[in-house]
Each structure stands twice: as C-alpha cells, then as structure tokens.
Input
Amino acid sequence: MARRGRDARDGIGRWRLPPVEVLAPWLAGGVSLVALAAALRWSTYVAGGSDSYCYVSQAASWLDGGLLAPQPAGFTPPWPHAALSLTPTGYIPSPSIPGAIAPMCPAGLSMTMAAFSALGGPAAAFLVVPLLGALAVWLAYCLGRELDRPATGLLAAILVATSPIVLHQVVQPMSDVPAMAWWLAAIVLAARPGPRRAVAAGLAVSAAVLTRPNLAPLAGVIGLFLLARPRAEGPESSRVAGAVAFGLGVLPGAVLLAWIQYRLYGSPFSSGYGALDQLFAWSHVAPNLRRFPAWLVTTHTPIVCLAIAAPFVVRTHATWLASLCLAFSVAVFASYVAYIPYDDWWYLRFVLPALPLLLALTAAVLTTLGARLPGHLRTAAGVVCGAALALFFVHTANAKGVFRLHAFESRFRDAGRYVASTLPERAVVLAVWESGSVRYYGGRLSILFDQIEPEWLDRVLAFLEAEGRPPYLLLEAWEEPAFRARFERHSQYGALDWPPMAQIGNDVRLYNPSDRARYYAGEATPMERVWPDTGGRRRPRR
Output
C-alpha cells in the first residue's frame, strides 16, 4: 500500500509544469506574437505628418521607378521662395534636379516598404514596422538568453514588448523601431563567434545604416568588440577574421547609402536633414543630458539603471557581451547628446537602438539577483517583478495616449480623402501639416503657406485663380492662430473670418477663399461635417 501511494505521488509529480527555462522560448515567442497583434490592432495606417508621409510616399516612388518626385510641368509661380512653398513636409527641394523634390528621410525603411507593397499592395507598407517590432521582441529574448539564461531572455522580451516608447513607435510608419530591430539583430548575431554570424551581423548593420545613416559610426563599436573578443573563444586570427567578415557585411549598405545620397542630395556625405552645424551644437548638450535620462527613468522606472551593473554581475562568459551592450548604449546616447533638443517625451525614440540592450541588461541583473533566492521563491519573484514592470509600462503608455494615436492620426487620411472626393482636380490646397496628406490621399497639389511672404498671400490666391487652379486653405486647429498672426495685417483672408466649408473631425478645417465674399454679401455658406468613422466621406448634415 505504501509502495502504491509512493508511485501515485511520483505519477502526479510527472504532471508538474516544466521549469521556466524550458518554457521560456515558447513564452517569448508568444510575447512576440502578442506584440505583433497589438501593433496591428493600434497601428495608425496613415501617411500623415512629415516623417510618416516621407517614408510611405518614398516607398511609392521606389515602385514608380523615380527617387525624385517632379513638380507639375509648366507651373512657374511668381512669388518668392516658390520652390520651398511647393515642397510638402518631409521633403526638400532637390539639390541636383531643378523643379523636383527629394525626400528628407533616409531610404532604408521606404525600400523595405516598397518590397512589401510590391507583394501585397500599398497597404502592405504599413506591416513593416509592426513585423520588425515583433522581431525586436524575439531578439530581446535571444540577447537576454545570451547574457544569462532563457528566463532572462523572457523578462527582456516582456519589457521590450511593453516599453512605452516602443509601443508609441511600433504603431507608426517611421524608422525608429526598424533601426532598433536591425541594430539589435547585429548585436545578437555578433554575440557568438564565427565568420558566418559576423557577416550576418554586418548585413544587419547595412540595413540599420540605410534606415538611420547618422548612427553608422556605431558599427565601429561592434567591430572593436569583435577584435576584443575573449581569447577563450578563439585565437587572435579568428578574431581578426570575424572583424573582417563583419566589415564585408557592412560594405554593401555603406556603398548603397553613398549612391542614394549622391543621387538625391548631390553628395555621398549629404542628407535631407541639412548641414551638421544646423543640427548639432554644444549648446544642445546640457538640455539633452537632462531630458533623455529623465524620460528614460520616468517611463521605465529607475530600475533601468541596474543595467550599468550588468558587466560586473553577469556570469564571466557573458561579461564581454554585457560590456558591448553597455558601450553601444552609451554610444547611441552620445550620438544625440548634441542634437537639436526637443520637449516631448516621445523623442526618446531617437535612442531606441539602445533601449532593448538596457532592458536586457536590467533583466540580467534582476534574474542574477533573483537566483540567490530559494527555489520556491525564485519563480514567484520573477513573475511578480515582470508583471509589475509590464503593467507599469502599459499604464504609462496608456496615460501618454499611445492607444489613441490611431484615432488622432486618422485626421490626415480623412482630410485627404475629403479633398479627393470634393475639390476640383486642378485645385491647389494651401496647408503645412496636412500638405503631405493632401498629395498622398487627395491627389492635389499643396503649397506651404508658411513659406509665403505675408504680403504675398492675396497675390498667390489671385494667381492660382487666374491659372485655373482654385485655391483652398486646409489648417489644423492649432495652426489657425499662427496663420492669423502671419497674414491678418497683410491680407483680406488672413483673419479666417468666414465659415469653413468643411470641418474634418475636431481638428481640421477646410476654407474656400471665394466663400468670404459670399459670406459678407449675406449668402449662405454652410459648413459640412466629416467624422472620423466615415473614412473621410461626407455625412449628411442634420
């Protein structure tokens, strides 16, 4: 009887859950899929502001076979700064081809978007960032596993998947998450020795450099650490061979980047963002030294500072990799410390390539410390710590409006579609923030009103009318005070003192300048309302 009871207990014991080390890769894969589902659910799917419009429209240009978008043939405006005024946000007047505009943003993301669009249509371009975000979550698991153990990788994957800034950027068609994913892939591939992995790491750097060229010097950090790989992992000749193989992988991206920048901007060393002295200055250092660390700690808790201790805490075999991650993260922050300072927390996106590394290092320190607990407390402590951090991260993201971005950004698509369905084909729309969506969704020419001299506004509108191009004004609510301040004293239209012909959602208004005379003559000028749930289509007035 005693024997049978012992067998029964042994049988029950065999049904116990596998240890977390066994489940970790499966759970990390599940976290990656959940991250992908969340990104697809809350993605904006909009080419709206300057960055997203630049990437999505540039992808379409790749498919059309032209990197430089020409302006309308035979349209020669007489006003000052005409070339600038005809350049929508996200673009610059072409330095190499008169009458054309060039994208301001780098080509890497748009090239990937173009490949997806070629296979699945224009909407497939919006899948690139969510997919690369999910890949970054899995790579965070791989990095954590290399640093310590599978449980560390699982915690790193959870932290990256729920990071407020990752959640903020993974739903927008911008280059921050792709750059993060490619650099993370390079470091994970470089974590183990071997020429094939070194070449693959170099190719990942090629993709990263094409996506965010200003971070190209970071390749040197990885190359130096490959040369400094511990002797226990191979002789000096193998370390040199690995560094050479890494360099061969980086070369295609560097060559292609030089050709693209020469083609677009007239020099392999030029970009669409302007001269370096306009972007970087010593006066920017102090504000950025205050802001970036503060944003990082307030959105990810002070626990992220544990990453600094990782090289001294992790197992001996992982000290080299932890040091590489920490040095790389410092180099990322250093790349932006003298850059133009911004006030909004989501400019933490600039340093996203460092974030998964810092979170993986933090996870390594936490799990190393947790390993000192008794076995029955170790798993419970890990679950509580991971769940608490993830909940705080998601709560922070929600408080900062991350899950409302898709509704907020929809105004670009709705306004553009309304323009397409309502305005004459030869209409010209004066706008700034909506200038890209007018072209992408509306198929109409846009002119930047902030590049028109105040005393020229009436003459610009009269010229467009004479050219058979009826003008309209499309402004977001926050732009109207700036428009009035610029033009009110110089133009009869500057005060915007007549009803708009349409209001799109709560934030965008479309004005017809010809309505002003009718309004002051006592004629009815009804305003049409367009609500977000109509996809830019008109809803009958009630």
